[in-house]
Amino acid sequence: MTILSPPRVEKQSFTDPHEAWAHLTTLYHRNCDFIREHLQGLMEGKIPAGRVRAYYPQVEVRSTSYSKGESTLPYGYLHSPGIYRTTVTAPDLFKGYLQEQFAVILKNHGGTIDIGESETPIPLHFALGPRDHLDGRAINALDVPLRDVFDAPDLGNTDDEIANGTYVPPRGGPYPLSAFTAPRVDYSLFRLAHYTGTDADHFQNFVIFTNYQFYIDEFCRIAKGWMSESHPHYERFIEPGNVSTDNMLTGGTITGEPPARMPQMPAYHRG
Q: How far, in Å, CA of 177 to CA of 247, rounded?
């Protein structure tokens, strides 16, 4: 079957962590947009003339020595000479994390951060945002199985082999540059949204778990009160369905729609 892909982007090298992140982000969005545009065309009755495929961006670095710079951090260094590589997803969500990691690696080892395209396809499900609407009726009317046109999540790409310490890389690499691959991260992000009813970008550093509804009710009452009273430290309150109540200082607008059925682990956030 013919493969329809965006033009391949050659690997580029960066010594500035911010520029590396910006290029990575542009490449990621371009490839996700390519998949979404073909899906939109399919919903309009335009069947692609082949299999639609775009790839996750890839980060690669090289180490030529066992030494590293002076650092007390437990990350940002490469244990052996060789090539280190990983696929990346959701670069906007992980902006601060990625830029810091790039900066520390460059400081400790020199060299460059090389950004290119991997050989791992982006599944249709992960190219779509959590809030993207899929017109199932229009697609079903075409009698074209989505898996005939788009890549689906592959369990072979979403395992925990690296994190579990069971992955054995070839000598000299490529060694894993992160504990989880892009498909594995995407799987977790979408599970988080599925079970909590809120997008992953609303989550913060500290989470309180409770199985008592009256705690949740009180939390919501206080949070909504603060929004109506123009609390100086919080901008909005987010509930399942990504229902957002803005602070009165910014107009007090309420957006989003509560889910018809509450998720299994509803989450609430003060932003």
A: 41
